[in-house]
Structure prediction request, 230 residues.
Amino acid sequence: MSSSHVLSEPAILYFGTPVVLVGTSNEDGTANLAPISSAFWLGWRCVIGISASSKTTANLRRTGECTLNLPSAAEAAAVDRIARTTGSNPVPPRKLARGYAFEPDKFARAGLTPLDSQTVAAPRAQECPIHLEAAVTARHGLADDTPALRGQIEVVELRVTRVHVRPDLLMDGQPNRIDPDRWNPLIMSFQKFYGLSSGQVHASRLADIPESAYRSPDVDRARDDAPCET
Ligand SMILES: Cc1cc2nc3c(=O)[nH]c(=O)nc-3n(C[C@H](O)[C@H](O)[C@H](O)COP(=O)(O)O)c2cc1C
Prediction:
C-alpha cells in the first residue's frame, strides 16, 4: 500500500495542548506564574513537563505545591504578555539567547489578579476560568537516556487538592460536571495560540460512559487536605 506521506523532521512536536499557567511561591513569599503546555490529566493527577532551569521548577522542588490555572482562548493576550519572561535572575543563558527577560511580577505583567488558594500558599489567577490547587507527588527526569539532554527537563506528577470552576462552565444542575460545549481552552500548537471551534465534530462513544465511572479515590482524599493558614 503506498502513501502520500513524506518523512519530516520537525524540530518541535507540539501538536496542540491546552495552556496551563503554573502558580508557585518564591523564596521571599512573592508569587511566580509560568505558562506551560506540556500537561496531561489522569484522574485527579496532572503530569507536567517543565524545564529544569525554570524558576517554577525550583519553586516546585522547594515548596512541593502549586496552582494550575487554565486560561480560555479569551486570556491569550495575558498569556502572551508573560511569554519569554522568567522569574529566574539572572536569566539562564539558553533563555537569554532566546530573548527572555527577568520579570519578578508576572501577575502584574500579565494583567492577572492573584487570588488566595485554600490548600496551597501559591496564588491562583483570578481571570482564568478554571483553577486547580495541587501537591507534588513524584518527579522524574525526561530524556535521561541521552547524555546531552540529561537533567534538562523534569516530569512532575501533581495530585489535585482543589478544583475551582467559574459557574457558567458547569452543566445546568450538575455542580460536578464541566460542560465541554462551554469550555474553550487556550491551545498552543507549534508555538501559536488557538481556541477550539464551537460544538462537537463527531459523536463520541467514549462519552457514553458516565463521567462518574472515572471518579478517583483522590477526590475524597482531597477533602482531607486541610486549608492552609493565611
Ligand atoms: C504558551 C507557552 C507554552 C509553554 N510550554 C512550556 C512547557 O510545556 N514546558 C516548559 O518548560 N516551558 C514552557 N514554556 C516556556 C516557559 O514559560 C518558560 O520556560 C518560562 O521562562 C518559565 O518561567 P519561570 O522561569 O518563571 O518558571 C511555554 C511558554 C509559553 C508561552
The domain at 17-222 is CATH 2.30.110.10 (Pnp Oxidase; Chain A).
